[in-house]
Structure prediction request, 283 residues.
Amino acid sequence: MTRMLAIAALAAAAALLAALPMPAQAQFNLNINKLLDSAKNVRSATREIDQKEEIAIGNDLAARLLGAAPLAADPRLQRYVNHVGRWVASQTGRDDLPWRFGVLEAPQLNAFAVPGGTVFITRGLLMSMNSEAELAGVLAHEIVHVLQKHHLKAIQKGAQTSLAGDALNHALKDASSSQARDKLISLGTEVYSRGLDKSDELEADRLGVMLAARAGYDSYGLPAVLQMLQAMNAQDSGVALMFKTHPAPGERLSALGEKMQPTLDAYAEQPQLVERFAAETRR
Ligand SMILES: [Zn+2]
Prediction:
């Protein structure tokens, strides 16, 4: 599959959403948008990348990353993951972003977000999960990366040090400035192989737990996945990249316990949807 076709398939999977009853939205007395705002980093000195540019950078990166692992040729699975992802994303109030979710045909355990609203999860990670609440927890973590522009800011920071300001603006504005644009993409892929700052990952865990709870899921979905990862050997090739690019699962679990215990406990009785997850993901 060529990259352009892969992007089209991604959009098609997101568009073909059949009716699937989603969990009831929780009576969540926290304003997540306000929380996201207050968690915003200090603005950098350069101008903000606008939403159109954010989506364009994301599309370039998605195409590049899709060259490394193709989308799973499984329309039902793609639809299901889009359902869950879009339901969780709809809790954020950022309906203006073109949210789409893609399952990559890769045995490794990984998930990552691309600027502008694209989230990928590997089939390997999906198959190691046990419930829709776990899937929602992982997707919520990735959705927070998009909302907080964690990757975008890391790429921008890299560009500021290695590209003159003018070259960066050209790369953003002008698709024909292919040299600068290629540089931006390679900075982007570098961020994905190196990983984000630890504080960004822990923030995505905290806000992700809240987001999944607000979407009506058992709040322990993400912690359950972290526990599963904790039990794995970091040298295992299936988790090597995930472990290299994220803080250790044990550290993430204790950070969550420290800051999020009341939320975890308050929403632990919400649905896990174990049977539906099995029915929709097992062939
Ligand atoms: Zn992350």
Q: What stands out?
A: The beta strands are 100-104, 111-114, 118-122.
